[in-house]
Amino acid sequence: MASTSVVPADTRFPDGRLPAVDASASAYGDDVRTGPDGHPNADDLAGIAERQRQQGHPGVALQLAERVLTYAPDNDQALKTQISSLSNLGAHRRAEQLREEYQPNWPQATQHRFDADVATVAIRDGTQEQARLERRHHYATSNTELEKSLDSLNANLERFPPGSEASLRTRFDRLVVLRQLNRFEAVIDDYQALQRESANVPTYAKGPVADAYLARHQPQTAARLYREVIDANPQAPLSVRTGYYYALIESEDYEGAEQQLARLNDRTPTWRYRENETAAPVPNWERSEIDRLQVRDAAYRNHEDVALDRATTLYRAAPRNTDVINALATAERARGWYQQAQTTIALAKGYAPNDKATRLNIAENAQDLEAFPRWRATSEALAEQFPSDSAVRRNRLEWLDRQHFSVEGQGNVGSSHGGDAVNGSQDGDYQLRLNSPWSEGGYRAYVEQSYQWGEYDEGAERHGRQGLGVERQWLRRHWWAALSGERLNDDLGLDLGWSQWLGDHWQYQLRTQTQSPETPLRAERDDLDGRLYQTQVTWRQNESREATLTLGALDISDGNLRSDISADLTQRIQASAHHQTRLIGSLSAEHNRDVDADYYNPENQRTAGITLEHDWLTWRRYERSLTQNLALGAASEWESGYGGAPGYEASYGHTWQLTRTWSINYGIGWESHAYEGEREKRWYGQFGFEGVL
């Protein structure tokens, strides 16, 4: 942890080499006398050795002091220089042994410096012990030695004079220990106190401070500190160089992060070569971290296919590496392949059941698979053992969200011109839903309120319903049952549904409603009701491609049977960190029985359309974000008795993620379609929200 700085070349020993052991005094310089025994004067050489140390050449100073001690073992200055040089070179334990053996008469400031050196050694050893125990998954005791080091540092601060070299050094070292103990707030407080005192914090302590700012969601400050450390030492520890990458990512500077990752990739070889070219090279453990970082980088940029390819390549090269297996499972989960990810995670669990990353992967995949008992048990244990880990804390909060009420709502209002076959001159609707907390078994109750209205030539029509229901979700199965009616005492209807995923790619859904809101509003005016029967099958290849087939029939009480079939295919055609574009192709056909009806009721209707959707993540700061949404659509529409006509749609809106659990969305849109030979143009606006109470 000792800082290194560039020092000017030594003019006395420019190549860092001492004269031969038996060289005369003049070989060391004109200012060196010859001693009575023929050796160079011991005091002269000891003085030169100390000046070498003070000028930043502790290696030369150590050699020179030890040469003096071979023929003048009692030379006090040489002994002190030997001990001080060892300390400067990081050999604090050996320096402390010599100090205890010879008990030189140090000034108090020097004694304090050596006490600080002893604490530094303890920190280094404690950090190594922490890493060793964590590799063996002994998390409960991994911080014991570092806690002792912190106690020693605090005791030294009580003894050392404020503002002294030893006191400042101890405060710098304390930043390192606090960071290793994940006490990030304390790191930032101590660092800011040092800044107020205009203390020059060394680079070895700035890396831990940058870690603390990154952990406390201040990535720009973290990036600046990481950059300072790297500029001072391009071969800074890997944690500093990868920390700089993460700080850029979290600052939304993806271009800068790409450049940093390229530098890491270029400067981190797969093998560490030995000076002896005939010896076999040894693996570079840092290369594995860079390879896994490239997997994560692709995922950050919404290139899930690239991330999976890279993770699969790593897995084939190291099939028993737990970190690699977890990276593969995470990449599979990002593609929506939760069952496959569960199989992969089982491998990691078999090799390292107590590994933190493996257990977190288990919790997150259990969440996606709706295996709620496993999710709860795993997240509880992780939160208790790793309370300061941000990923663990987030997963735990998402579980606790299920124990709260939640609310959601969506509303639309429109204005039409040129015809009123469907929407009328003015129209609107809204739906509100309040959900109870989820039970341990995956049950919850809910209440709903819906309302529709439209203004037609013959007058305004309005219809509202209240509903009360219960649902259950578990193991990617979902059923619900609800009663609804006007004031829950008139025209009661039943809504029943079931959906289930069959593996990672197929889902089916069945639904029936005895008082369906799909019934036209004008039919509601005539006290007609509709019974809905619907079947839907979804095929999802991955996050980029999905197809849905829907069959439905609406049996209206006037004898009309409205049957329809529709199919759509969604293909993501572009993706980056802040932009995603999808192309949606759709086909639909509808048939109505030939009955005399006051509502819009063509015998046959067919549509073939295509829609382009684009989402622009315009701004993001961790759990808060703004996304702009744009959609453009065109269709060829055909109606029996009137022939074909084009249809157009366009919409633009915003989605705000206000907090981790609250979001709102709003937008405007325009559409133009032909109904019964008349072109109807409609402007509309929409607003929605959802959140956890």
Automatic annotation (TrEMBL):
It holds the Pfam family PgaA_barrel. Gene3D superfamilies: Tetratricopeptide repeat domain. Residues 1-20 are annotated as: Disordered. Residues 418-684 form the PgaA membrane beta barrel domain. This is Poly-beta-1,6 N-acetyl-D-glucosamine export porin PgaA.
